[in-house]
Amino acid sequence: MSREEEIRQELFDHTLNGHAPEVKALTEEALKLGMDPMDILFKALIPSLEEVGRRFEKGDFFVPEMLIAARAMQGALVILRPLIAETGAKPIGKVVIGTVKGDIHDIGKNLVIIMMEGAGFEVVDLGVNCAPEKFVEAVRTNEPHIVGFSAFLTTTMPMFKVNIQALEKAGLREKVAVMVGGAPVTEEYAKLAGADHYSPDASIATRMAKQIVGAAQAAENAALTQAVELIDKTLKKG
Ligand code: B1M
Fold it and tell me: Ligand 1 pocket, 67 CB below 6 A?
């Protein structure tokens, strides 16, 4: 087994057992060896949290074990974040995102943020347990292209609909694309809730966000061309 394979395995095991100092040291070692941050994330850290979830479901792990595993993962994310997220480029679009009311899971949301920032988006993070009014206010003041709702519990998924209704009531629904995601969410559920877009993971969410912004810009350009043509015609007539 190569040292890289050993590191992946050790990262998996130490995250599973919530050994934060070891996870931090291994992440640093992996980067020194030239391992890809995305490789560390998707081949070691995320699979480990998935195993934590499986053990929790089986009754082998309880909330404290989930919590320390999450903390260990977050320590690694602090190191990986700048490597994935900082492009230094001019923002290509703006996103407001938060975890819905009643839900305090944030690792998945934070990964979406890291990847979107890495792709050049400006992201306003509203944190966790975010009330509909907070989303509405953030959309009003930031005027983002996209508002994103994350939910990780079947009991908090209904907040998507509540948030969308709050945007409608505030007269903001047509001004922003709504994207939803989170472990238990499905495409079908997203449609039923009234969302415009659903994504199962951070990388698809980022690709989708680029398409949404691209489409919005194309629509703006088309409207501009139409206006210019109209002015041209009017001038020619006159
Ligand atoms: Co909790 N938890 N948890 N938990 N937890 C889950 C979600 C659970 C599936 C575990 C299980 O039973 N297998 C289960 C939910 C069951 C259900 O509703 N169907 C569960 C439960 C039951 C609970 C509590 C109720 C436990 C209790 O108290 N009895 C409680 C609820 C607290 C609350 O929110 N009110 C609770 C608490 C916690 C901790 C605090 C201990 C901790 C969270 C720490 C934190 O986030 N800071 C925790 C953890 C760590 C988990 C698991 C083990 C891991 C979650 C995670 O980070 N996954 C989780 C099991 C699992 O998911 N397999 C579990 C890794 C992450 C990268 O994936 O979150 O799916 P994910 O994010 C993905 C996509 O979903 C997507 O992109 C991300 C990256 O690719 N995505 C989007 C996310 N948001 C998006 C938004 C988008 C688009 C894509 O557009 C806007």
Answer: yes
- Euclidean distance between CA atoms 99 and 6, whole angstroms: 34
Q: Which of 71, 79, 97 is nearest to 17 (CA)?
A: 71
Question: Which atom, in ligand 1's list, is nearest to the CA of 156?
Answer: 18
Distance 194 CA to ligand 1 centre (A): 22
Which residue puts its alpha carbon closest to atom 68 of ligand 1?
108
Residue at a domain's end among 89, 109, 128: 89
47-68 confidence digits (pLDDT tens): 999 899 899 989 999 999 999 9
Q: Atom 88 (ligand 1): residue with closest C-alpha?
A: 181
* Cα–Cα dist 53/32, whole Å: 30
95 and 196 in a single domain? The answer is yes
What global pTM score does this model have? 0.89
- Boundary-marking domain end, from 24, 55, 89: 89
Residues 104 and 220 in one domain: yes
Tally of structural domains, the chain: 2
